[in-house]
Design goal:
165 residues, mainly alpha, Ferritin, 2 domains, three-stranded antiparallel sheet, 4 helices, 3 strands
Length: 165
């Protein structure tokens, strides 16, 4: 791999992390009563997304929808079969309860994501309209006409789910 390709990967990772971090900062600023600071963080996050997408395109990583679904399935499957199980064991051994909960929720949800992507790939040529709902507590993603009454991953009530457009 060329140095430029390595630089693109590092830049993509940094910009992606900055986006997510700034969105978390924006939520905290809102809670702390600073709506203008929250707006600034959201603006910064949007700019970081533009940078990340440009780096991703320059790497040649975005392919056809079918190829992208296959890549998503592989990535999600790696997370729930290899990455998170090891992290869960380490968090247990170290007694880090917040990390254990975070990793356990993510692990369960990544299995769901892999299945949803697999279904989308299998039905790509006969795509039908479906709504998706995401739990704000654990990220559980549900396809259907409405959010479930209770999240099957974390137990949150239906009001924790947001409809994704």
């Amino acid at each position: 791999m060329s140095t430029t390709q390595e630089d693109l990967q590092a830049a993509f990772a940094g910009e992606s992390q900055a986006n997510r971090t700034y969105l978390a900062y924006a939520k905290q600023a809102e809670r702390d009563g600073y709506p203008q600071v929250a707006k600034l963080f959201r603006a910064g996050a949007a700019a970081e997304t533009i940078h990340a997408h440009a780096h991703l395109r320059a790497m040649g990583t975005v392919g056809s929808t079918a190829a992208n679904l296959k890549a998503a399935i592989a990535g999600e499957t790696h997370e729930f079969t290899d990455m998170y199980p090891a992290m869960i064991e380490t968090a247990k051994a170290e007694g880090h309860k917040a990390a254990l909960r975070s990793f356990t929720y993510a692990n369960a949800v990544e299995k769901v994501h892999a299945e949803l992507y697999s279904q989308a790939l299998a039905n790509l040529e006969k795509e039908t309209a479906t709504d998706y709902y995401v739990c704000a507590v654990c990220g559980h993603t549900v396809a259907g006409e409405q959010a479930p009454e209770k999240c099957e991953v974390c137990g949150a009530k239906d009001r924790a789910f947001s409809k994704i457009d």
